[in-house]
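In this supplementary section we document a worked example of the pipeline. Step one takes a protein sequence of length 398 as its only input; no multiple sequence alignment statistics are reported here. Step two produces a three-dimensional model, which step three serialises into structure tokens for compact storage. The input and output of this example are shown verbatim.
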Amino acid sequence: MKAPLYVHIPYCLKKCGYCDFFSIPQKSVPKDYVEALARQIEFLAQNFSVEEWKSVYIGGGSPSLLSPESLAFLCKKITAAAPLSDGGEWTVEMNPGSLSKELLEAAKAEGVNRLSVGIQCKNDLVLKTAGRLATEEEILEAAALIKKSWGLSWSADLMAGLPFQTKEILESDIDFVSSAGANHVSLYSLTLEEGTPLKEKIDLKKIPYDEEKAEELWLFGRDELERRGFFQYEVSNFSKPGFESRHNAFYWALESYLGAGAGAAGTIYKNPEGVRYTNILDAAAYTNFWLNKGGEPSNNGAKEKAMKNDWAAQLDFPCQKEALDMETQEFEYLMMNLRTRRGASKKEYQKRFGRSLARRLEKAGKSDWLLRRSENGEDFFSMTREGLLFLNSFLEEL
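The serialised model returned by step three reads:
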């Protein structure tokens, strides 16, 4: 098996005001958690007979809270479990406030070749209102350090629709990441999640917020990015030619992937069966299991089970499991592929699900949102540029 690997670091200095993801406020990543990660990664590689990692993504949380020594240790263990494929993409997320020269050097020395930097915005008022710890000064210093000490591919995360954010502020942020050398930008629209401090303050009118203006701001950001040569290849992702995220592309293509770490998910597709697992949302329990109770290499009998496609039996560790029938897989294929400008392949769809893609898409009755094109003799269906804005409505119709 050749698979992408996602590694989750759930620790953050502080939870942002809009965040509802699983994260743990802490100043550093415990060494025993990193050792537990290494155990699970070894277990997954052996039990699923991983020949190589198609890509590696270390996300969070804030992976830049890892010490340089812990990051190097983790990377070595990943490579020992299975090598990265030739030309494979290896990304580590970093936040401006915890990024350092030593961390960049450790990452580069161990084969990491891409950074994803959580900038969001560099205006101090906007950052403070959103509950971000980073300051404009830290962001400027981080960008200068990346330019001086990294020299490899990097992506910037930006947000649109934050309170007090204006077109001028967003345009300044886009100019900044472009001039700083980012070759990829993820532009996310603020989502106000229930139970988050930011939504509560907005609901109580403590912070001004206009949803319509927020949507207009994202559209403005999209146009500004494209004007600067960043092509929108997915709903929220823009890149210079050749710098699209290969790791994310495996998700969108509905390929099997493995996930390690508290809260991380993995999905194994073996038609007609599929299973998705989500590791326990408890870092202490996760660490305890992998260091004291689990992580033994699979025996021959377990490997034989894997060869017989008994994937669920291989997930013998604390996690939630979800069986994926063909109907679920089919909808997820459309949901993920229609997020991309590449779109859904008629040939792939027919081979995987034995149906006509054109007939399936006709059910939505929104032909003006769809684009059909041929590329190298293969037909693709994708959303139009404007149709992408109505993707959720289109999927509801499907």
